[in-house]
Amino acid sequence: MESIVETMVGRGREQEVLSGFVTAPGGRSLVLQGDAGVGKSTLLEHVVRLAADDGQQVIRAAGVEAESGLPFAGLHQLLYPLLSCIDELDSGQREVFDVVFGRGGGIPPSAMTLGIAVLDLLALAASERPLLLVVDDGQWLDTASTDVCGFVGRRLTGSSVRLVVSLRSDVSSGFDTAALPTLAVATLSESASEELLDRHHPGLDAQIRRLVLDEAQGNPLALLELPPYVRGNRAGRDPVELSGYTGVPLPQRLQQMYASRIKALDSAVRAQLLRGALDGVRAGTAAGRAGGSRFRMADAGEAVECGLLDVDPLTGDFVFRHPLVRSAVVQMATPNERRAAHAALARVHRDDLERRATHLAACAVDPDEEVAAALEAAADSATRRGGALTAVAWLTRAAELSESHEERSRRLGSAAYIAGHSGRLHHAQQLVRSDSGLDDHDSPSSVVTSAYAALFEEGDLRSSQRQVFAAISTLRDSGVQERDEALTRLVVLLLAINQYVGDADMWERSHQLLDSLGDLVSPHARVYQDAWGDVVRRGAGVHERVESALAHLRDLEPWDITRLGVAAYHVDVLSRYRPLLQRTVEREVEAGAVADAMTMLNLIMLDQIAVGEWDEAERTGQRTLDLTTRLNHPLFSFHTRGYLGLVAALRGEVEQARELQAMVDTWARPRGVGFLTQIADAVGTMAALSEGDYEAAYLNAIGITPPGSFTPYAHQASRTLLDLVEAALATGRSEQARTHALAARDAGLPDISPRLALLTYGSLAMTTSDPQEADDLFHRAQTHPGAAAFPFELARIRLAQGTRLRHTQGRKAARPSLTLAAETFERLGAAAWTERARAELSATSASAPASTAHLAALTWQERRIADLAAGGLTNKEIGERMHLSPRTVSSHLYHAFPKLGVTTRAALRDALGGTPDQTA
Fold it and tell me: Which residues form a coiled coil (predicted)?
């Protein structure tokens, strides 16, 4: 028998490249790309033979159209032979594979997380023997598998793993943008075509030979297959007449050729071929689907004899000779024959939820509630496995097969809901409109879809708020007895809109409405109700409820994780869930579910800000802003700008912070988006604090909430506790500062979150007049179990403690706190705060009069204001004397303090070198 190399003609260049690919040291990847029938599969067989001769382990997989919508189907083929190696990985990586392959619960990982785990698995499998992964017909691989293969293929350098993928040039796929090295497989030259034709079909009539060469145009499959077809159809006609199909693409002509052979088969054999084609039995030599049930063609020897099938020498299974044969089998079948085949395959896959549902849907004609329910269950599975778009298609089909209008509407609503969360709002609206039984826009699905459009796109939030509220009221008044998806979606949507609008009256009305529904409101929605609105009054115990909910990941949809993440942010326990969000967000971005992804990215950014990863936070924010801008989601765009403004303010980049603050406020305030206007006010507060303009900081802070109280449903009211206290103290408003700190204690803020505990104890310590109480409270703040998770706030409290200690207990006692504060500010990149802490720390050294250079560095106005401040005048009194605003006075002092090496008014007298002149 001739070897593969001996039967290949005109492929010297390709063989040379592939030989180097297989034998050169190190891991690598390669894509073979060319037209159908050009010889890619033959070249893959050549690669396999070379690898086997070199002692390498070979694992093969193939993409098939029937499986292109099943998440991870292709990856399962590749990794199934390595399941024993998976058990040798650490527990975290085993969990990743358990989720992907249905061996355990949890959230499906992102392509990056899974790709890293796959790389580790492949490295383990190749540790004793080099490994070759072969993927034929990669264009039909499911999206999730393509993403992972692309990720892995770009990172094989230095390993003992090689990956080779074949692709059809005329079919787009995820590999097109995977940036893997590519070898273009072109058609054969004229001389090579003649050699191949003469070798396999010697003695052809000259006219037929010329016709075949002209029609094949260098395509090897056509050169091998056309001669019998031409001879068999000549029937006394002149060969020139056989070129009547010229102009039809070659793959279609080859399918026509295969169709003539299929017609001649016995009906039972045709049925076997059809089931194999519809179930994804691959073409060429390879094992069938790894693991689980699969269809095996039987009694099909007749198809082998006529060149439609081959026999796999490893398994003995019948396999299609070429993908075009499989396509021809499906195209030739009648609708009834295809439905019968799908019904048979549904029985084969009775234990495989998603495959069974796919075949049941294809064989159903009339409404069938059993099939619709199976499709709905498969859609739920696909959603949790990262296949949101597949879920929309299955739910749409389930709606078509529903036996009642109510079930049809419910399933269309679910499809629209998932489409909306995937950022496909127009598709969602089309699905809702397709429910022909509705003659108005007041159905729950219609209300939900239009309200999400108003949220995610630029819309009237208050109008949507009223519409959703009315829809819930209608359901309640109709006597609804059971909790259902429509009600739950409306309730959660109302809470989300309420959070953004921030209207206290509507929140109170909503609480009354939801309380009247009792147990019809889901436990998750109750968490959102308490966390998203007024966390000061309703936040106690929320973090335990969030933890309990997230302990059951297997039961959660992506949007559940997003919403619980928002609740975790409001009670400051987001850090422990950030890894979950990062795994989920990458998957959602890859799968196109961008609406949830944008919220998750904002949550990740908020946690990065909280823990002091400000560079990473800015990168996350820029990524989110690019995504939201590109997809035209204004709400999320300005939301992200607000957080970028906060990062800039923390760093002391005041000009940029105020520019972003103005952008957010200009967009949000006219639209009544209170959530964003509060973020803008918080940015202004922090920018002023960084600049040392304490008067402006105070005015911004009391715009969020007045001292001594926490404005209901103002989510920044508690978050800016320390800001208001510090600004009040710096502007001589000690009574207001103390009142606000006591209000935090009396409101029970330390019981709500670790951050609020830190801020409350710190504020109480800064405002008490009792030295022992201050020491105890500073100690309590800094030793709180959650304090280290909020380094910026902790450093501010240490700065305040060190400053106080320097005045009450001396320089030596102050240095430890001030040193820690200065080091933290410097590590975070908070330039203004670092300078402030360093100046205070320098004051703990031996005192020395200010140098002439220091004094000379002051402007006349700075020197005059410093003299008056050293004499004990307030900013307001100084302003009255110099005809300046208190804010301008504060700004001049901010610039003067570092020049003099001081941070407080009390140090000004010594720094100025004598008794200040208080004359006007």
Answer: none
